[in-house]
Amino acid sequence: MQTAAFSELFPLFSAASPETIEWLLSITVEHEYPAERVVLMEDAWGNAVYFVESGWVKVRRHVGDDVVTLAILGRGDFFGEMAILDESPRSTDVVALSSVRLLSISAQRFIQTLFKDSQLHHRMLQLMVKRLRQTNYRFQLRHQPPAIKLANTLVSLGENYGLPSEHGTEIFNIPHRDLADVSDITPDEALKIMDKLHSKGWIKIDTHRQVVYLVNMRQLTHLAGKV
């Protein structure tokens, strides 16, 4: 991968120097996983930072015998950065929702790079603050109707990871259980709302390709209360 393509794909590296990008490209390790494969086990947190080159993954927490999806990440995002600085035991893992390609950088080398490139360090702090704000916003929505919560999830996925297409913004057809978890609603509510949005023509579900087209982002954004 060329340095320009690398920095364009991963917003974290948009402000990094060309020398930093070249160094990172020389030390990254590539991984490929099929759908439903665990890509990061509970006891592997803190060993490396992972970057999603293509595909979709979910971060889930184990609660007794059950699991809850905490986040859904797509192309251009990363995970594992917090565990580098936090050595406490983890009860979460990461699972591929679709076939996925990841790049990893060992914890030691990533920390070395942060110290060497102050712009990269600053950019990482910015993105971590952005994630914190998104988490706080989700908490503020806890008393909102289920449709508003789900619309916020769809809009966020579209804005962060969606690809433009002739049918609208394309995202992965995420299972209703996972959509429900990250939206803080029930699976039945998620199924009913998705069916209603589909009947309105605001989204289009292609089960063959396993994608959802956000056909009317304007209406979805309005439903989410972001305008």
From TrEMBL:
It holds the Pfam family HTH_Crp_2. GO terms for molecular function: DNA binding; DNA-binding transcription factor activity. Residues 12-131 form the Cyclic nucleotide-binding domain. GO terms for cellular component: cytosol. PROSITE patterns: CNMP_BINDING_3 (PS50042), HTH_CRP_2 (PS51063). CDD domains: CAP_ED. Residues 144-218 form the HTH crp-type domain. Keywords: DNA-binding, Transcription, Transcription regulation. It comes from the Bacteria. PANTHER family: CRP FAMILY TRANSCRIPTIONAL REGULATORY PROTEIN, HTH-TYPE TRANSCRIPTIONAL REGULATOR ARCR. This is Crp/Fnr family transcriptional regulator. It comes from Thermocoleostomius sinensis A174.
